[in-house]
Amino acid sequence: TWSRARSATNLKALMTPRLLVLDTNIVLDTFVFSDAAAVPLRAGLEAGALQWIATAGMRIELARVLDYPQIVPRLAFYGLGADDVLAAFDRHARPVAAAPKARFTCTDPDDQPFIDLAVAHQCVLLSKDRAVLRLQKRLLGLGVQTRTALDVPVV
Predict the structure, then answer these.
(1) What is the pTM of this model?
(2) Cβ distance 19 to 121 under 8 Å?
(3) ∠ CA 55-56-62 to the nearest 5 degrees?
């Protein structure tokens, strides 16, 4: 019956991991700084309730940022090396191909690939970058929720 089919569809939606694109600062908050706002994200990734998608270029950018003079001492403070953070990236991120340019252009060109990927996959984009957040309403019209953090645990 229609009711059973709808229930099966709802169950499938609940069991399908939620797709996310994480910008570099969110990755740092999650795997370096252990920011309290990132706890639900990390738990969701580890439980498989969330699926983070990323491109090779995003991993390259993360590696570059991990080498910044202001980041290296922070890594040391937390007892981490760049390799630890890149290993977390490799463990949790599902590699996907770079996406075509989205209809809207970000004022920060470093953020454009994150926007493009979120638009291509119509998924949540987690970012605290002001340039990205200024596009929030426009991106919503393209099927992308732009948020600074997950509001509640997903597990």
Answers:
(1) 0.86
(2) yes
(3) 95
